[in-house]
Every structure is written in structure tokens, then in C-alpha cells.
Amino acid sequence: MTDDIILLEEADVRNDLEEYQTYTVVVTVKNTYSNPDQGSGNRKLQYIDDTGTTRYLTLWANSTPEAVYDFDFEQDATYTLTEVQFTTNESSRRVFYNLNATEETEVSHGPPEDDSATNRQAITSASEDLPSTGVATKDAVAEEQAPTHTRESPSLDEHIDDALSEVPDPATTQTRHALTAFASTGRAGSLTVHEYELVAVNGYLPDDDEAALRDTYKARRQIARQHGDRPVVAVVEPLTLVALEKIDESAIDIDDFRLEGPQDALPRL
Amino acid sequence: MSGYQVGLNSFGSKPADFPHQREGHLDHLTWYNSRPALQFFGFDDPVNCDALIGDEIRITVHDDHVCSSCGGDVDPDRDVCWDCADSPLMTPCIWNPGTECSWSDCPYPEYKRDACAHTFVVYLVAKDSVKVGITRADRRQARWAEQGATHAAIIGECHNRKVAGIVEMCLAEEYPSKADSSWYIPVDDPVETLVEAAAEAGECFPDRLAGCYTLDGLSTAEIRERVVSVPDRSTRVNDEIVAGTSELSRGDRQRGHVVGVRGSVIATESFTFNAKLHAGTRVTLETTGDLAVPEEDSNT
């Protein structure tokens, strides 16, 4: 373990820490998490580092003392954790920087206490050696506690601004159609629609309009099946269909009907 | 000795006869198409839980495990691998989108496109009490079934995951958003409880997102019509008894007759097996019934 005390809010762990070293860290907790989908064995303390990046210090249930794992971390409060290990790993061409509590980790409120001149010396010399690396003196730690240095969490309004930042204004009004989506931002361009009629053959006649409508839907399914790429075909009314592309009537075999059309292509919205 | 901790019911006079077996690392219990099925990593076909009901099963929960998210190798003291731990679904922006999602500066744009930039719903479900949750609109039925709810009602329709997360965060002050996945005793009169909660929930929506509330101006009767029952397999289950039985832990082996399935839990008359708690763990499932796989849906 090093004698350095790392003030995580002023550190860039990627450059400031050595792999496999353990450190005493001072962390201002922005939030804590326990993701049930990850099982019951993890707790993450969220903080923001000197580069403005959101990072996490992880407590694993299997390797963290119970008193530390169950500690009641409060939002925006500062804590000192000892024996926190820094490791990295690379996967899928990404490097991950990990701060994990160890079996020796202890936790206390606030920055570390001023309990020994030796310790202070060690801290001071470390900070002198690395003036811009985020290894902080105790003065700096105390300074960090001043309200002017506290980073505020975004307000509810700021979160809503962010959430709606890519939503066009017209889309903030609902369509009132349950479970569809929000109003579109403009009208779709005009489409060319080809209209087809079903003409009964072989003496067949549907009994009534309902039977004719069923026959029309059945024909629509047969048209779709007989095409490699399913064409967009819709039923307009009994014995009338429309499609967004021309259909080769001679290549379509429909029970009791033949397909007739298209009529002149009709521009529709 | 087997080395496994066994229940008293495992010492029956009749020797166990389990002709069918599936052993593998457990993924999760899915309710796709309203059918409960146990997914194992590395197996194309899940185990049809409907086929287990009424049959005797024996479940062994081993000590070794893989990453509960992808099924890959993982350090023994971790539940998920490094890759998964730092990627959605395991990141805080997914667990708590209301406060942790950086929508306009998303570090995972492809995931955002595929999974977040869609219509999301905010819903209330009835379990042992009323809970609030969010899900992508198109997978709401599966989500409610996976949660093991008895009934559900959509109360909000939102532009994306973060908007829904903000609404959920505001509602969580009134209704819990985290739920225990174990077997539970359902709340009395879940429909009326949901109707009452849903009618009042609009007050919790932030003013700027009030338009997302979908029940504005609806009568109690109209809200009641919006409450849906969630598919489960627990009609033959005495909830008071099953909720009081032991839940299998790592290293356990027990056998019993399956009486029901709800959420992530398979219930027998003497113990429950919560698949959510054992995601990634190697599990041996033996049964006297068939390990049939669910039939393909004829509409898909």
C-alpha cells in the first residue's frame, strides 16, 4: 500500500494510480447502487473525477468487510476508504479502470483525521512529487469540503431538458392513441398507390359483403405468399386492394378470383 | 454422500426416478409469448415450465457460475464479467435513467438507438403491494410476467427511457420501484388497489411531463378497463403456504412436485426455486416429466 491519499474528485485514475497498488481514497459519493440483476453481491459508489467522468468505486460482498459493505453512504457526503485497490483490464479493445474495496478496507466519514506528523509528511511529500496528479494534501481535502467546491447534481428541470433534447416540439404532444407513439413532426411524402380489383371466376360469387371481405383478405395473403419480397398490400373494401408497387397479375394465382388492374396509378397521400 | 444439502422431502421411501435432465448454467426464466420457459446458456431450446407443472422435479444448485449477463467466464467473486459490468444493461444509466442517463451525451449510442430511443411506458403493477416500473412499450406484457405481477396498468406513455425514468423517479416517492422477486402473497383486491393508485398517480408527474399521464380525465370505470391481468401459472397454488417455504440456495438439492410458476419462481409443495437469484449458476434440473421446449408461435 502507498501512503498517498487520493482525492478522487481531483484525480484522473487512469494516469495517477499504479495498477495493483492499494490507496486510501477520499470520495464524495454522488449516488450508490445495488443492481439486483447483477445478483446480490455488489455495491457501487458513484463519483465524478477531475476529468468530469462519472466513475465508480465498487464494493464486492465477497471481498469487502461486512461493516464497509453495509455502510450507510449518504448522497453528496464525503468518505475516506482505506486499502482500495486499483486494477485495469482490457476487453474488446477497451480498457477498464477499476477501484475495488479489499478485505482490509475501512471506512470513515469525511477526510482522514490528522493523527500523525509522519502521515502528514508522507502526504505532503507525495503531493509535492505529483503536484498535478490529483494526489491531494489534507488542506486540499479540507478545501474540497467547502460549499464552493461542491458539484451540484442536475436539477429535475435539467434532467427533463436533457431527456427531451432530441424530441421535436410537436412530438411533446401525445397522439392520444394508446400505446402508439408521439405525434410526427411532419407529413409523409406522397406515395403512388396501385389499385386492384378481384374479379370472380369459375361461376363463384361471394354470398354477401362479409364473405367478399373475407375473400379479399384471403387474396391479400395469397398475393403476399406468392411474392419473394412481400409487397405492401392493403384491403380497401370488399374485392378492392391497393399496393405500393405494381403486381404482376398473371403471376398470381388466387382461388376463385383473378386480379385485375392496376387502374391508372393514383397519387395518394 | 452427495455433498449437497438436501431437504427432508428428499428422503422418501421411494427412490427418485428422473428420466429427463438438463444441466447447464442458468440464464433466466422467460415469459416470451406468455409461456414460462427456463433459458440456459449454450442451449438453443429453453425448458418448457408448463410441462413441469404437476410433475416431480429435483433441482441441484451447484457452486460454480459464469457471467450472469452473457454466460462468459467470470472471476469467482464476481457475478458479471468486466465487459458486461461496464456496458448496458448493467450500467447505472439503465437502472436509474431518471438521474443517471446522459441522454444528449450518451456513451452508448448504438444501445440508445436500439433500446432507449423508443416509446416507453410507466406502469403500476400489483404484487404484494403496488409497485411502479418502466419498460419499452412493446415488451410490457413480458416484463410484467417476468416480474411476477398479478395485474398491471399503464399510467404513462413517454418519449424515451430517460423521460420514463424521470416519471418513475417521481412516482417512486409514493410507490416502491424495487421489488423482491421471491414468491409472495398477493395484495387483497389487486384490481381495485391498482385503480385507486392509478387514478391518483397523475399528481406525481412533473408538471412539464404531465402530458405523459395517460389516464387524465378518465372515470374510475374507464381506468378499471385498462387494468390487465398478467399470465401466470399459480391458480392451484396456496400462496400462504408457498410463500413460507424455503428458497433454494447455492449448494442445495431438493425435490418436489411443481405446483406453479410466477415471475422468476418455480414453486413446489415444499420449496421454491427463484431463477433470478441463480442467473449464471450451474443448475441441474431433473424431472419425471418431459423437458419439452415451447412450441413455435404460429403467428411468428
From TrEMBL, chain A:
It comes from Halopenitus persicus. This is Uncharacterized protein. Residues 125-156 are annotated as: Disordered.
From TrEMBL, chain B:
It comes from Halopenitus persicus. InterPro entries: DUF2797. This is DUF2797 domain-containing protein.
